[in-house]
Structures are given as C-alpha cells and as structure tokens.
Amino acid sequence: MPHTDMNTNLTPSTSTSVAPDRLTRGEVARTLLWSVVVISAVANMAASYSGADTWVHLVCGMVTVLCGGTLAVRALRGRR
User: Fold this and answer.
1) Which of 32, 14, 17 is nearest to 71 (CA)?
2) Contacts of 57 (CB under 8 A, 6+ apart)
3) What is the pTM of this model?
C-alpha cells in the first residue's frame, strides 16, 4: 500500500518570504571581518620573519584585535 502524506498542503503558498540562498548583511560583514583577521595575522607573521619595523607589527596587531573584538561583540549580541 503506498504511503500518502495527509499533512501535505496542496494550495499554493501566499506568504512572501526571502529566498533562502540570499546573503544577509550580517553574513557579509562576518565574512569580511574574518578575512581581514586572517590577512592581518598573516601580514604580522610575514613582518616578523622579514624583520620589519615595529610600527608594522603594531598596525597589523591593532587591525587583528579590532576585527577580532568586533567579531566577538557581534557574536555576543547575536545570542540575545
């Protein structure tokens, strides 16, 4: 005997919803922040191996900390 689903809605949906494959602004921001964190950390490591000036390390470190902090704040606010 074939299985029939009695909960299937045969009427067309009238609700308007956002397409599930669209990116939100929050997802784009999070991706960009993670990209900047990785790039600045790699730049800081490259500066360490190349013997760059101290200001290069400080700038890379500040960018990494600011982006990491922003990611942490966004994650904590998202839990509410």
Assistant:
1) 32
2) 44, 47, 48
3) 0.66
**Any idea what DSSP says for residue 7?**
T
15-53 pLDDT, tens digit per residue, is 565 567 888 888 898 999 999 999 999 999 999 899 888
Angle between helices 25-50 and 54-78 (to 10 degrees): 150
| Residue 68 neighbours by CB under 8 Å, 6+ apart | 37
CA separation, residue 60 to residues 1, 10, 73 (Å): 67, 58, 20
Among 26, 25, 24, residue whose Cα is nearest residue 73 = 26
